[in-house]
Amino acid sequence: AEATDNNAIIMSAGIEMQSPAQRLDELPDEEESCLLGDENGQSRRNVGASSPDSDRLTAGGLSSPGSLSNDLTVCNNTWNRLSCLTRSFLLLLVGILLTIATYEFGMDEGVKEQERDNASAKHADGDFSLKSWKLLHGDVDGENGDSRKSGEGADYGENYSDSDREDLSKMISPAIHPTFTRETLGAIRSRCLELTSILHEYYGGPEKTQMMLLKSWQAQWALDDETAYIYDNEGDVSDDDDDDDDDSIDEEHRRARSGKGKKREKRKEDKRKERNPNDQGGNTTATKEQKKKKKKKGAKEGKVLNDPNNMSREELTQHHNYKRKRTNKLVETMARAMLTPNKHKFIIGTIGSSVAAGHDNCNYDSYESQLERVLTPIFAAANMHIIVQNAGEGGSCGDNHKNQVFCITHNVSPDVDIIHYSWTYFEKERAEEQREQLIRWAQQMERRPMVHHLVARGKKNTCEGDSQANVDLDKTYAMYGYNAFCIQTGLYFGGHDYDTDIENGINRFGWKKQGDGYHNTTRYGEELSDDDPRKNSLGVVYRNWHPGPL
Fold it and tell me: pTM of the entire structure?
């Protein structure tokens, strides 16, 4: 009896010591009976706490590799039991689902790829969309169809306070950027025409305004009445319609381009002679005497290296190609900002020295603050905010143009649309290298912003155009919108005789001098009463070496 009991105990212990793999091997027969049914037609057994371990393991999902074939057998039996109509319906449903999935995949991937190919083809062949881009002239139809003349409802002359700026911000809806509509375009254009009208009135007419503002730039912009918005088509003379105002093109080439006939050429020739009476066989002696007189008066002039009047036909064609690329980048930057859904801000970021910071001025009177106030109504019409960031710093801080370039994404927002750079009094030899680094560095930023160089001074007849290194920057990076702006150059082109002022002991660009020869205070300063001391302070051109509000 004891031997029998010992054998039973040993056998029980052996059963308990069986490995899980051995125990699972015993499950297929039970699984088959559960899935396929037993002899009595019962499809499944109830598995409870009293069931053997093998049954509980099967119910818990621990199945053997043979269970896959059993599952397929069950599915096959189930399919065979369905009626023909039911099976047809299921097959149709699966086909529809596959078709929808394929279509969605094509929309997400295939169509996008085709659009990219089309865009590449357009870029290669020249995209002639947006052919006419009128920038400075014309009326705008309002929402009710009434024509709104430029200048109506202008509000740029206001002296904005903090509460005024809050009111301007209320002009912008907090809602998500809406779809760009015809009404939106009309509102933006109306605001632009209002600003244009104010500038024309302030500077003394359209021609004088364009001379003073556009000539302040080192390189030319293609801002004719009708500007062709065209991608790269170098050498296409027939489409080069933005050089109609240059008089160095020979008559045959000009007639081939424009087809306007002899009358137009006669008008061009008359204008050229009117501007330069001594350029063709004029009195050479008189010209020399004028130059000596200018030198005696202390006029600031530089030799213009990139002068269209002295270019060959090939050079002139390339010159206008650069001008068009530069302008295209400007137009694209503005248009894409306004057309991009969910973009609520247009950001101009400024780095530089104390000139950029606006030292010796109230922050309200810095050029960043003035520019932001002037442009706010235009961007508000597009349901956007205009932000002009001021990251200028004093020269004693230790940073300069050589190292600040590489911190551009830290000093201003990394998603700026335009970068302004001003280190006038610190740039020495080879300063163009830092500007080139900034241009290239900017192309790695999110919006690939344009870089514009603000110069606190300027010569009488050119803005840095007498330096070959600067001219090379203009050409090389024209497609990225690079350009330079000189404060004093535009004032010279306005026609005021600063040479006579100097002879009379008046230096308009001296320290604390009020009035630039055209105005004695800013536009918003004109709203102040005459006995307000701030009105005179706003008319200072240069506080010292730092530019003043005017």
Answer: 0.59
